[in-house]
User: Fold GntR family transcriptional regulator from [Mycobacterium] manitobense.
Amino acid sequence: METTVNAPATPRVAPTRRVRREQLSDEVAAHLRYAIMSGSLRPGMFIRLDETAASLGVSITPVREALRTLRGEGMVQLEPHRGHVVVPLSRADVEDIFWLQSTIAKELAASATARITDAQIDELDRLIDALEVAVAEREPELVAQAVFDFHRTLNRSTGRIKLAWFLLHAARNLPPLFYANDPQWGERAVANHRAVTAALRRRDAETVVRLTDAQFTDGARRLMARLEEIGLWS
Assistant:
């Protein structure tokens, strides 16, 4: 990441700087979400502006904006004269996150089965090939990107843009690199996604929905086990 700089006075250039600052804020927010949802940042811990900025190699401004975003998502709260603190994360919270995403994703999966084209399924197969290579080469960021691209392509095929948008925002609560760093999960994801495209070609909505549900069931089990292991709720 690059350190942000003050926007120049020229109006013609300022929008580019503003977009970059917003992107940087989004990256910081994603980093903090991952730390919170994976248990690295625990409930009751304070997130210091200067320390976080220094560790990420950014200025304080995108960190402040990222924390404002996380306040709106209920992940942190601002305590007067003390700073931002991570709010409690219960088992029910984690279960609710997965329930919400699974419910939306299954509806989109059923719609995709009816509307997706053969060319779009071919593209999904190419993305699975990229996922398989990334898993084999132990490239977690590429694994996470390939999975994201797969589901974005699948969801866009439904034509249900608003519902796909809701799923995208709900998915921000999950820590993708937590899964992408696990080779066993990666191999399972490759097999699951190949089964999904095979079912899509058959227009087998029941199987596509079942496989989609299995993704979230497995994801919830793994994350809950991780949080139990580190004693988040002990």
In short: The chain has a mean pLDDT of 90.
